[in-house]
TrEMBL record:
<dbReference type="InterPro" id="IPR052955">
    <property type="entry name" value="UPF0703_membrane_permease"/>
</dbReference>
<dbReference type="InterPro" id="IPR048447">
    <property type="entry name" value="DUF1980_C"/>
</dbReference>
<feature type="domain" description="DUF1980">
    <location>
        <begin position="148"/>
        <end position="239"/>
    </location>
</feature>
<dbReference type="Pfam" id="PF21537">
    <property type="entry name" value="DUF1980_C"/>
</dbReference>
<dbReference type="InterPro" id="IPR015402">
    <property type="entry name" value="DUF1980"/>
</dbReference>
<keyword id="KW-0472">Membrane</keyword>
<feature type="transmembrane region" description="Helical">
    <location>
        <begin position="78"/>
        <end position="96"/>
    </location>
</feature>
<feature type="transmembrane region" description="Helical">
    <location>
        <begin position="34"/>
        <end position="58"/>
    </location>
</feature>
<protein>
    <submittedName>
        <fullName>TIGR03943 family protein</fullName>
    </submittedName>
</protein>
<keyword id="KW-1133">Transmembrane helix</keyword>
<keyword id="KW-0812">Transmembrane</keyword>
Amino acid sequence: MKRETQNILLILLGGALLKITVNGDYLRYVKPAQQPWIIAGGAVMVALGAVAIVRDLLSARAAAAVPGEIHEHNARSAWLLMVPVLAVFLVAPPALGADSVTRTEARAPQSAAASNAAAFPPLPAGDVVPLEVNEFVSRAGWDSSGSLNGRTVRLSGFVVHNEGNTMLARMVIGCCAADAFPITVRMVGEGVSGFGNDTWLEVTGTVVPGTAVRENSYMPDLTLTSVRQVPAPKDPYEY
């Protein structure tokens, strides 16, 4: 690969990293805490590429002043190498969704929070308690105090249809999308079967006690009281 191509690729890659941090697309790859490192990496790549290009231009100008040192290169073919870079780094892929959930075979236990029964802190006061799906599943499966029983909760996630069940799901990541794993809740009630896979919903309901067990990979049932379609969030993952 020619030096000119290397330098341009560095600037393109660095610029792409800076772009996805500005428009928020980096959240499809990593957790928010990684943003400063992406910005730093992109800035360094752009700076290195710019410095190398300036240095090469100065060298070429000096060489042009010396007879017999002028070389012409046909760099048109090198531009073809930019196409996959632009396609991969400038076109953001969709977030992991229903297909990732159904293709994940080993999902027990669902939550990394605990594997043994424990007493969780009481839920806050209020008629409807907003919770992350990960916390809801953790409490349903391992809260020995039964803090969810009789409480109405609000969850948001995307729809997954699998083996006759209609589930509300979220992908949980520890560092980046490569280590993502699904958390699912089986929705019980009318009005959800008509929504297609990957449709984002905000639902309220109450847990069916005792439904999150090892045999169903600790997937609790949620008896629905309301269902509302919502836009996909900018940050689709839980942590």
